[in-house]
Amino acid sequence: MQQEVLATVKASTPRRWLGVGMLAVVGAMVLYVALAAPPEPHWQVFLIAVGAAAFWLAYRMWNATEDWIELTQTELRTGTGRIIARVQDVEAVDRGVFAFKPSNGFLVRTNSKEKNVWAPGLWWRLGRRVGIGGMTAAAETKFMSEMLSAIIADRA
Length: 156
Fold this sequence. Notes:
- By secondary structure, the protein is an alpha+beta fold.
- The chain is built from three helices and nine strands.
- It is elongated and about 60 Å long.
- The mean pLDDT is 91.
């Protein structure tokens, strides 16, 4: 049975184009420097690797930000149905200034440790910590974090 979606967070199209475009420009500039004015061979290999990594990251970010995040009464999930965290496992929500969180986002601490995952520009998970945000609008992530905090407060 499909549950009611309480809040949704997605990356806006201008933010996607700007973020991916910046990474692609960095990759192109680094590759140009590596090939137009070749430095010593080990530095040239390093620059080519950095340029390729920037293009790979731009590709990953473009694909990741096509998705979105939904909050229901029982889970935090992606639009494709991948469960990010179950609400019953959420220990705390941190949106403070000094929290280790994505820009325009918030941090969720869970009770159970999960596999590390990274969707650049949208969300990440490192052990018990989940970061939501990045290329998302601050108003959407703030609303989602407040809804999640209210659900947790009702549970306690």
